[in-house]
Write a structure and sequence with these properties.
The structure holds two protein chains of two kinds. Chain A has 26 helices and 26 strands. By secondary structure, chain A is of the alpha+beta class. Among the domains of chain A are: about 265-325, Calcium-transporting ATPase, cytoplasmic transduction domain A (Distorted Sandwich); about 450-555, Calcium-transporting ATPase, cytoplasmic domain N (3-Layer(aba) Sandwich), CATH 3.40.1110. Chain A is elongated, with a radius of gyration of 33 Å. The two termini of chain A are about 60 Å apart. The N and C termini of chain B lie far apart (about 50 Å). The interface of A and B includes residues 41, 62, 64 and 65 of A.
Chain lengths: ~725, ~55
C-alpha cells in the first residue's frame, strides 16, 4: 500500500478497503493441524468425528504417521477455532501453515523411485526364473527361447527403471567427472548388449538377470537414501509450518489478522506482549521491553519506546506496541543475515562424502580393469565376442551393487535410531561429518539455557519483600516477573494484597501498600544503580531498593551433554553475544574452560573458521540469528527445535526435544555408523578380490555373477542392521 | 515342452497382475499413512457400509 496523501479521506480509505477485501478473498479453505498427542484408532475416530461435527467443516482426515489432520472447510472456519475445539476434547493441536506444507503433500520423487523399484523387482524375478531353468540345463531351442523372453522383459524394464542412473551418469560425464553411476550404467548397458549379441548367436551365457538384479538392488539403495532424507525434510518443514506467520494489521482503526507475507511497507501492525516482531519497523505507539536474545545473544531485555527501531525476530515482553513496517519479507534484517550465511558457505571446505571418495577410487579402477581384460583377451584369443563377453563379466562382477547399498543402508539405520532419540538428520553427509568432530562450540542464550531467567538470590531476599514483589509481579507476563512468582511459590511465600497495582510498560509495576508506594522494576526507575547481573529492584517507601538477581535457567541435559562430550575427549567452547559476567558465570557452572563473550555474529563465524584452519573439526550448537553464520561455517551444526527458522535451515541436525543430552550420544552413533560404512566397503572389496580374478580369467558365468552380487548386497545390508537397537 | 507355451505366459501374466495392483495402490495414495491405516481397521465405523465419498 502506498502512502499517498489525499485531501479527501474517503479517497484514501477506498483503496484501503479494496486492499482489505483483496486480502480476505485469498484465504485458503484447506487447513492443517499438527496433533502431537494422538496415537491410536480411538484418537483418530474421536478427532475426525469432532472436527466433522463442527459447522463449516466439509471433511477431516487424520494422518497418524505424520500426526496431522487435514481439513477441508468453508473459508470462514479458522484454524484457531478448530484448535480450541480439539483442546475441548483433550487433544493438543497446533496450527500448521498450509503454504509451507503444500510442498511436501506428495512425495513425487519417492513415488517415482518406488515405481521403478517395483518394475525392476517384477522383471528380475521373472527373468531369474528363466535363468534358473537355463542354469539347470535347458538347451538349444529352449534356451534360446528363454533368452529371448528374458530380453523382451529386460529391455523395456532397463529403459524405464534405469533412468535415474542414466541421468546421473550423463550429468557427470557432461561435467567431465566420474561418479559411481558411470560404471553402473556401463555395466548395465554392456551386459544387455553382449547378452543380446550372444542370444542372437545362440550363445550359452546371457546376463539379463544380472542387469536386472543390479538395477533392483541399486534402486533399493537409492530409495532408502531418499526415504531417510524425505522423512527428515518433512519433519523440518513441519517445524517451519508450526510458526504460522500471522500479524495483526491495524487499518482504519480496525484490527485484522493477515498472513505476514501480505504485509507491505508502511503498514501499521500491533504486536502484543509475548509476540515476535514479524518485520523491521519503528515503534509509533507504546512502551515495552524487548528480548533480543535471538538476534544478539543478550539475555537482558532492553527498553523500547516511541521512535525506536525494531528488528524482525525480537520478542515484545511487556506492553503492546504499534509498529510501522519499514522492511518486510526478504528485506528484513532476519533475511539479510542470509548474506552472512552465504559468505560463510563459500568459505566452507567442500566435504567429500565417503561414497564419493570410494567412487573416485573405484570408478577409474573398474574401467581400467575391464578395458585391460578386453584388450588382453582380444590379443590372446583374437576373438571380439570372447573379449567383449569377458569385459562385460568383469564390469558386472565388480559392479558397485554392494557399494551402492553400503552407505544408504547404514545412514538409514543410524538416522532412524537418532530420530527415535529426537534428532533430525537433515543433511545427507551430516553423520559422517559428525563422526570426525573434536571441538564442540555452544551458544549460550537459548541453546545451553532455556532463555528463561530464574531467581538466584531468593534466599537473601527478606520474606516480606518477596511477598511484596510477588504481589506486583503476579499480573505481569514479563519473564523476570514470572521468575519471581515461581521462586516465591517454591519458597511457600504468600503474596500480599496491594492497592492500585498497575504495570508500567517498559519500566515495571507499581502499587500501594497502606498508602505507601511500592515499585518493582528497572534500576533507574526505582532509584538504584544497575549492576552487571540481570536484576530487577523492589522499592518500598523510603527503604533502600532490594535487588532480585537472575540467571538463565539451564536447558535440560546441558550439564550431561557437556560432561559426556568432555569425557569423550572433545574440547568444549562457549561462545556468546552476552555480557562477560553472564558468560563467565555460565562457563564456570558447566565447567567449560574456554569461553568467548560479547561476540558479534561475524566474530563467531571467524573464530570457527580460525579453529577449522588450526585443523579442528568443529561442531556448532546454536539457535539464534547471530549463530547462523557460525552454524554454516562449522564442520557440522546442530540447532534446537526452538531456534529461529533461519538457524534451523543453516544447521545440519535439528534437536526435536528440549533436551541437549542426545548430542553426546549422537556423536557416538555417528562414529559407529562411519565404522559400519567402512566395514561395508571392506566387505564389498573382499567379494571383488575373490570374484574379479575369476572374471578376468574367463571362468565367470552368469550364475557366479548372480551369487556374488546377491550375497554381497545382503551381507552389507545385514551389517548395517547391526546399528539399530 | 508344449507345456511351456502355457506356463510362461501364465507366470508372466500373474506377475504382471501383481505389479499392476502395486501400481494401483501407489497411484491411490495408499502408502501415505501406513500407521493410521493399520489402526483404522480396529475402529468399527463404516463396518456396515463403506464411507461415502
Amino acid at each position: 500500500m502506498s502512502t499517498s496523501i489525499s485531501a479527501c479521506p474517503a479517497c484514501s480509505a477506498a483503496p484501503a478497503a479494496e486492499d482489505l477485501a483483496d486480502r480476505a478473498a485469498q484465504k485458503d479453505a484447506r487447513l492443517a493441524l499438527s496433533l502431537p498427542s494422538i496415537h491410536c484408532a480411538a484418537c483418530i475416530a474421536a478427532v475426525e468425528r469432532r472436527l466433522a461435527a463442527e459447522p463449516g467443516v466439509k471433511s477431516a482426515r487424520v494422518n497418524l504417521t505424520l500426526k496431522r489432520a487435514t481439513i477441508e472447510a468453508e473459508p470462514e472456519v479458522t484454524a484457531r477455532q478448530l484448535v480450541e475445539v480439539l483442546d475441548g476434547i483433550g487433544y493438543e493441536a497446533h496450527e500448521l501453515d498450509a503454504g509451507t506444507l503444500s510442498a511436501t503433500q506428495t512425495d513425487r520423487a519417492g513415488r517415482e523411485l518406488l515405481m521403478r523399484l517395483a518394475v525392476a523387482g517384477f522383471a528380475s524375478m521373472n527373468v531369474m526364473l528363466l535363468s534358473v531353468s537355463v542354469w539347470s540345463g535347458a538347451e538349444d531351442a529352449t534356451r534360446d527361447m528363454f533368452h529371448w523372453i528374458s530380453a523382451a522383459i529386460t529391455l523395456p524394464t532397463i529403459a524405464f527403471s534405469g533412468q535415474p542412473f542414466f541421468r546421473s551418469a550423463w550429468g557427470a560425464l557432461r561435467a567431465g567427472r566420474l561418479n559411481m553411476d558411470v560404471p553402473i550404467v556401463l555395466a548395465i548397458v554392456l551386459a544387455v548388449v553382449t547378452s543380446l549379441w550372444e542370444t542372437s548367436l545362440s550363445g550359452e551365457h546371457a546376463y539379463f538377470d544380472a542387469a536386472l538384479t543390479l538395477t533392483f538392488f541399486l534402486l533399493a539403495g537409492r530409495y532408502l537414501d531418499h526415504r531417510t532424507r524425505a522423512v527428515a525434510r518433512s519433519a523440518a518443514e513441519e517445524l517451519a509450518a508450526l510458526e504460522v506467520p500471522r500479524v495483526t494489521l491495524l487499518l482504519d482503526g480496525q484490527e485484522r489478522e493477515i498472513p505476514a507475507a501480505e504485509l507491505v511497507i508502511g503498514d501499521i501492525i500491533l504486536v502484543r506482549p509475548g509476540g515476535r516482531m514479524p518485520v523491521d519497523g519503528e515503534i509509533i505507539e507504546g512502551q515495552s521491553e524487548l528480548d533480543r536474545s535471538l538476534l544478539t545473544g543478550e539475555s537482558l531485555p532492553v527498553f523500547a519506546g516511541v521512535g525506536q527501531a525494531v528488528s524482525a525476530g525480537e520478542v515484545n515482553l511487556t506492553g503492546p506496541l504499534k509498529i510501522r513496517a519499514s522492511a518486510v519479507g526478504e528485506e528484513t534484517s532476519l533475511h539479510r543475515m542470509a548474506d552472512l550465511v552465504a559468505i560463510a558457505e563459500s568459505g566452507r571446505s567442500k566435504y567429500t562424502s565417503l561414497a564419493d571418495a570410494a567412487a573416485k577410487l573405484y570408478a577409474p579402477g573398474v574401467h581400467i580393469l575391464s578395458a585391460l581384460a578386453f584388450f588382453g583377451w582380444l590379443l590372446y584369443a583374437g576373438d571380439m565376442r570372447v573379449a567383449l563377453n569377458i569385459a562385460a563379466a568383469v564390469l558386472i562382477i565388480t559392479c558397485p551393487c554392494a557399494l551402492g547399498l553400503a552407505v544408504p543402508a547404514v545412514t538409514t539405520a543410524a538416522s532412524g535410531k537418532l530420530f527415535r532419540k529426537g534428532m533430525l538428520i537433515k543433511h545427507e553427509t551430516a553423520l559422517e561429518r559428525l563422526a570426525s568432530v573434536d571441538t564442540v562450540v555452544f551458544d549460550k542464550t537459548g541453546t545451553l539455557t532455556e532463555g528463561t531467567p530464574e531467581l538466584t538470590n531468593g534466599a537473601d531476599v527478606p520474606a516480606e519483600d518477596m511477598a511484596l514483589a510477588m504481589a506486583l509481579a503476579e499480573g505481569s507476563s514479563h519473564p523476570l516477573a514470572r521468575a519471581i512468582c515461581a521462586a516465591g511459590k517454591a519458597a511457600g511465600v504468600q503474596p500480599l494484597t496491594l492497592d492500585a497495582v498497575q504495570e508500567v510498560p517498559g519500566f515495571g509495576a507499581e502499587g500501594r501498600l497502606a498508602g505507601e508506594p511500592v515499585r518493582l522494576g528497572r534500576a533507574a526507575w526505582v532509584g538504584a544503580t544497575a549492576g552487571d547481573v540481570t536484576s530487577t529492584w523492589l522499592k518500598h517507601g523510603a527503604a533502600a531498593p532490594v535487588a532480585f538477581e537472575f540467571s538463565d535457567s539451564l536447558r535440560a541435559g546441558a550439564e550431561e551433554a557437556v560432561r559426556a562430550l568432555k569425557a569423550a575427549g572433545k574440547d568444549v567452547v562457549l561462545m556468546s553475544g552476552d555480557t562477560r559476567p553472564a558468560v563467565e558465570a555460565m562457563a564456570a557452572r558447566l565447567g567449560i574452560a574456554t569461553w568467548v563473550a560479547e561476540a558479534l555474529p561475524s566474530d563467531k563465524a571467524e573464530q570457527i573458521t580460525a579453529l577449522a584452519e588450526a585443523g579442528h573439526k568443529v561442531l556448532m550448537v546454536g539457535d539464534g540469528l547471530n549463530d547462523t553464520a557460525a552454524l554454516t561455517a562449522a564442520h557440522v551444526s546442530i540447532s534446537p527445535a526452538s531456534a529461529l527458522d533461519a538457524a534451523r535451515v543453516a544447521s545440519d541436525i535439528v534437536l526435536l526435544g528440549g533436551n541437549l543430552a542426545p548430542i553426546a550420544e549422537a556423536t557416538q552413533t555417528a562414529q559407529s555408523a562411519v565404522k559400519r560404512i567402512k566395514e561395508n566397503f571392506r566387505i564389498a572389496t573382499v567379494y571383488n578380490i575373490i570374484a574379479v580374478p575369476l572374471a578376468v580369467a574367463g571362468f565367470a558365468t552368469p550364475l557366479i555373477a548372480a551369487l556374488a552380487m546377491s550375497s554381497s548386497s545382503i551381507t552389507v545390508s545385514l551389517n548395517a542392521m547391526r546399528l539399530r537397537g | 515342452m508344449n507345456i511351456l507355451s502355457y506356463l510362461i505366459p501364465i507366470s508372466l501374466i500373474l506377475g504382471g497382475v501383481g505389479l499392476g495392483f502395486f501400481i494401483y495402490t501407489l497411484k491411490t495414495n495408499q502408502y501415505d499413512d501406513p500407521e493410521g491405516d493399520a489402526r483404522r481397521i480396529l475402529s468399527d465405523a463404516y463396518d456396515d457400509k463403506p464411507k461415502p465419498d
